[in-house]
Automatic annotation (TrEMBL):
Domain of life: Eukaryota
Protein name: Transcription factor tfiiic, tau55-like protein, putative
Gene3D superfamilies for this protein: 2.60.40.4370
Region annotation (Disordered) ranges: 77-100
Species of origin: Medicago truncatula (Barrel medic)
Domain called Transcription factor TFIIIC triple barrel: residue spans: 9-116
Compositional bias (Polar residues): 81-100
GO annotation terms (biological process): transcription by RNA polymerase III
PANTHER family: GENERAL TRANSCRIPTION FACTOR 3C POLYPEPTIDE 6 (PTHR21860:SF2), TRANSCRIPTION INITIATION FACTOR IIIC TFIIIC , POLYPEPTIDE 6-RELATED (PTHR21860)
Length: 132
């Protein structure tokens, strides 16, 4: 019997690191962006047609894993036999407890793409004008 399996070995995940521009620009939560040239040495990220950022790849050291976070209710499972326990073997959701966060691995990363402001970015010009 031959299995028709698909492989995700060709997929490559990259982490976009914006720490280099943190505090210099204000990026709205739902900002539009264009990411160009992922296959080049210096990809370009344009945010809201205002900010131009230049990226540079860095290889990760060791294992770098990205996780997904999900909210889940607190669940108690009744396991022991009891004459008074009518819900033996069932799961009960405890509404008095705040939901917990569950994390699951999504992918393994091999590269981090660190961004900095482009010299011809509009925000760079504004920062220079404010300093003088």
């Amino acid at each position: 019997m031959e299995a028709n399996a698909t492989s995700n070995d060709e997929d490559e995940y990259v982490l976009l690191d914006l720490d280099g521009v943190y505090g210099l620009i204000d990026i709205p939560p739902n900002a539009n962006y264009v990411l160009k040239g992922l296959d080049t040495l210096n990809p370009i990220l344009i945010i809201d047609d205002k900010f131009k950022l230049i990226g540079e790849y860095e290889e990760t050291i060791g294992t770098c894993i990205a996780f997904s976070e999900q909210h889940a209710p607190v669940v108690h499972k009744e396991t022991g036999p009891s004459e008074t326990n009518l819900f033996s073997g069932t799961r009960l959701i405890d509404s008095s407890q705040p939901p917990t966060k569950q994390v699951e691995p999504v992918c393994q990363l091999h590269k981090v793409l660190k961004f900095k402001l482009s010299p011809d970015s509009a925000i760079q010009c504004r920062t220079d004008e404010e300093a003088s």
